[in-house]
Each structure stands twice: as C-alpha cells, then as structure tokens.
Design brief:
RmlC-like_jellyroll, RmlC_Cupin_sf, globular, Jelly Rolls, AraC family transcriptional regulator, alpha+beta, single chain, 13 strands, 2 domains, 38% helix
Length: 259
C-alpha cells in the first residue's frame, strides 16, 4: 500500500492488467507523496494545476495536460499544487515500449480522454474484453507521444543541493557564479566546472531551467504572468516571456491555452 498524495492509499501492484488508471483530486492545499516505488510504471497526468515529480538525479514538472512517465522500480515522490486534479496511469512492465528513463510527454486530447475513461472503468478486467481493447489502443498511442524539456538535473553534491534549495526559496536571487562561489569558498571557475560536470548544463542555463520549472508550477496554480515575472526577478514581463518562449516555443498564455 502506497500513500500517493495526501491521505490517498493505493496499491497498483496488486493488479496484473496491462494498465489501470486512477483519478486524484487534492483538497485546497499542496499535497505530497513520500518517496516510494512500485513494479508498474506510472504516468502522472495533470488535468488542472501542476505536479512536480522528484526522482534520483532530477525534478520533472508536469503542467496541465501533460504527463511525466516514471518507469517501474524507480524511487520517486510527487508534489501537487493546491486544488490540482490528476490522473495516474499505471502500466505493467513489458506492456508497452515506454522509456526506460523518466520523460515528460506531451499528450493529445485523445490520449487524455482515453486515460480518463479508463479511470472510470473497473480495474479488474478480463484480457479479452472491451476494456482490454481500449488499453491496447491507448498504449499503442502513448508510445508515440513526443517529449518536452521540463526536466531539471539535480545532483547529490552538497554545494549544488544548497544552491538549488536557496534558488527554489528565493528564485529572484540573481547572484553571479562568482558571487555564489564566494559564499562557498570556491573560485568562479571551480563552481562553473562543478555545475557543468554534475548537471551537463552551464550555471546560467541550469538556473533558467529552474526558473522554468518554478514558473510552470506557479502559472499552473493560477498566478499571473506579471506576478511570476516579479517573483523570478525579471526586469520586465517581456523579458520573462522571451525566456519562456525560447524554452517552450510559446508565450505562457498560448502554452496554457493550447493545452
């Protein structure tokens, strides 16, 4: 039995059907599941609000109408924004050729509706019935979904953990690499090399990706573009929108309206 979010206990591994789905509604405040894992892979779908999934080595953001795929056997935790509406799709190992690593998937309306419909059906279904046929089509479509770059590499290195924690609490902190280095008695070059080696990104790109994760979470919670821009320390709303468009190809308004 696993506590998924809040006080919701559910054990998908007791079932051996190729896939089962479950709806989750949070109630007025942020909810978080403790670190856990299960045999089945899990697709976390955000219907409203946002979800952040943490796995070893990374944070994955799930904005509305996207999904994050977590392979079976991988430790993870989920944090949902207040009043989020979610749907979990649990997939039996070997039932579909889904990624062996975490991935954020852009889902079509058809995929979302099929998952929602599956969540309303009995989870104990025979292998030759209507539900099994629905699942077969769903999984064949799911493996075709493209990925989106909503992943923040994180490291077990103590210094980078401290920087990530500080920037999460104060995302408007615009300290340079040299200034961060001074705080930890490191040279600018040493810290820059450390970030690159641990995350595969330059410090500037890594911080922008963190900003993108935070922005998506806050926008999904209903915050205005103006407010998010200010919270992240941008000089103007237009500068924030430029960053957002460069990362995701659309303005914040267009990105969420297209979902």
């Amino acid at each position: 039995m696993v506590t998924l979010l809040g006080s919701i206990d559910y054990n998908a591994d007791r079932l051996f059907q190729p896939a089962v789905a479950l709806r989750i509604d949070t109630e007025g405040s942020e909810s978080e599941s403790p670190i856990h894992m299960h045999r089945k892979g899990q697709l976390v779908v955000a219907l409203h609000g946002g979800v952040t999934c943490e796995v070893p080595g990374g944070l994955w953001m799930v904005p509305p109408q996207c999904g994050v795929w977590i392979p079976g056997g991988m430790p993870h935790s989920n944090r949902a924004t207040a009043n989020a509406r979610l749907c979990f799709l649990f997939v039996e190992p070997g039932a579909a050729s889904l990624p062996s690593e975490c991935a954020t998937l852009a889902l079509t309306p058809l995929i979302r509706e099929m998952i929602l419909h599956l969540a309303d059906l009995p989870q104990h279904y025979p292998p030759d019935g209507h539900t099994a046929k629905l699942v077969e089509v769903l999984l064949s479509e799911l493996v075709m979904m493209p990925t989106e770059q909503l992943h923040l590499p994180v490291s077990d290195h103590a210094r980078l953990r401290q920087i990530a924690s500080a920037l999460t609490q104060h995302p408007d902190d615009r300290s340079t690499v040299a200034e961060w280095g001074e705080r930890f008695a490191m040279s600018e070059r040493t810290l820059a090399r450390l970030v690159l080696n641990e995350t595969g990104m330059t410090f500037g790109r890594w911080r922008r990706q963190l900003h993108l994760i935070i922005a998506l979470q806050r926008l999904a919670s209903g915050a205005s573009v103006q407010r998010v821009s200010e919270d992240l320390g941008y000089d103007s709303v237009s500068a924030f929108i430029t960053m957002f468009k460069k990362a995701l190809g659309k303005s914040p308004a267009r990105y969420f309206s297209d979902k």
